[in-house]
Write the C-alpha cells for this entry.
Amino acid sequence: MIVINMGITCDLLKKDYKHMKYLVFSLICIIGLILSACSHSTELTGGYLPENRTVVDYSVIYYIHADSDYLYHGPEGQPIRENSGVLATAIEVAEQARSGEVFIFQQRPERKLFGLFSRGSSRFYHYRYGLLINRYEYRHPDKKEDFLATEAQLVNQYRAHNRSDNHQSFFLYFGHEIPSVNGTGYHRSIPGIDVNTIALANGAQNFLLSDEDRFDLVLLSTCNNGTPAMAEFLMPFTYVMLASPQNLHLSHFDSSRMTLLEEEPGISSLQLGHAMAEQTYQRLDTTVHSTITIALYDFNDARTYINMLTSLTAAKNVSDRSMQFKDNVDCAELLFLDPESYSKGVVTWYKPSRFGRPSDQLIHSGWGCKP
C-alpha cells in the first residue's frame, strides 16, 4: 500500500516556486546591470528650471581629471582624493551661477562589472541658473576616442541655446601636466585616449558652438603648461589663458572667484583671471617654499609675437624624449629673451625658491620651456 503525503508535496512545490521566483528576479537584476553597463550614461537625478528665466549670460565648463594618482593632504593633514576639493569648489560656483550655466566633469577611473563590462563611473553635473538639472554617471564607449569627445557630446546635447548678446564662455581644466606630444596613458584606466597639447586644443574647441565662437578665458590648473606652444594652439579660439609656466606643486588654482561673474556682472576675462591668480598666489605664498610661478596671458597682445617665440623654443627642443617629463625652466634662461619683445600681454606672479639654485632668479618671463 502506497501512501502519498500531500502536505509534504505541497511544501516542496512552494519551495521550488519561491526558488524559481528568486532565480528569475536575480536574472532580471543581472540583465539590468549589464544593460546599464553597456549604456553610454546613467541619469542619477534631474531638476526643473524656473519659467521666468530667459537667457544664459555665461557658460563655464569644468574638467576635473581624477583618473590617476591625485591623493594629497590638506593644511590639517586630511587626505584629499580624486581632486574632490576642486569638485566641491566647482559645485559651489555652479550653485551661485544664477544667470549662467555650469558643466562639471569629474573624470574618474573606469571599472568593470564582473570583470567584463565597463561601468560608468565618471560624473557629469549640469547646472543652470544655480539649479542642478542633470547629473549623470558616464563612461567612454570608445577606449581610443579623441580626448574630450564624450564630454563635448554631453555639453552639446544639454547646453542652453538662449544665450545673451554678451555671452561669455570659460573652460577650466584641472589635472596633471599635459604633455606636448604622445600622451598615451594619461588616463590610467583608459590609456588608449591620447592626451597632449594638440588633443587638448582640439577637444576644447569642440565645446564651442561654432568656429567663430571663442573662450573668454581658459584656465589650465596643471604643471608646466604656460608655454609658447600651448598658447599658440589655444590662441585661435581663446582670448585669455591663466596657467603656470612651471611646477604647481600638486596644488591647483583657486576657482572660487568665478562667482565674480554674479557679483560684478560685465567683469572682463582679464579682471577675472587676475582675481583668480592673485587669490591662488596668496594661498601658495603662505604654504609653499619652492618656486611659485603663475602667469596671465592676454592673447590680443601676445599674438603679435607668438609665432616667433614658438619658433625659437622649437629650435631649442632636443630629441631626448625623457626631457618632456622634466619640469620647465624660464624660457628666458635658454633664449636670452628681450623682455620688451616677449613680455607684452603677460602678467606674472612669481616668487623664487627659498633654497637651491633657482633662488638667484628674481624675475620670470612668464613663459616656460623644457630644459
Summary: Residues 24-39 have pLDDT under 50 and may be disordered. The radius of gyration is 25 Å. The chain has eleven helices and 16 strands.
